[in-house]
Amino acid sequence: MLKLIVKWLLLASALLFVAYVYKGVEVSSFGAAMGAAFVIGLLNTVVRPILVLLTLPVTLVTVGLFLFIINAFMFWAAAQVLDGFGVRDFAAALVGSLIYSVLGVVIESALERLFSKE
């Protein structure tokens, strides 16, 4: 449970970092970043697998590159649902989701080492 809370806080911080380094993404506060991180995680858990399955032929033809578009759509959809978290347009969602995904991989890797059961 502690790992989940720490991951949520770090992903919210990652969203603030994305907004800081890329002007196409705006986050009004840390609370808004926490809400956005939660909604993005929820969308990635519930909606993304369905979209991946439905777009499997396109994903295969593009050798997996279409998954970037699906990630950008999840990022953009979260911005449409929430106040305090905004994305200028779909291109900004693509860039923002790429930065956020890289930070998410780094966070996940660090947490695996920190919370390992060795």
From TrEMBL:
InterPro entries: Phage_holin_4_2 (IPR007165). Coiled coil: none annotated. It comes from the Bacteria. The keyword Transmembrane helix applies. Keywords: Membrane, Transmembrane, Transmembrane helix. The chain crosses the membrane at residues 29-47, 54-78, 90-111. It holds the Pfam family Phage_holin_4_2. This is Membrane protein.
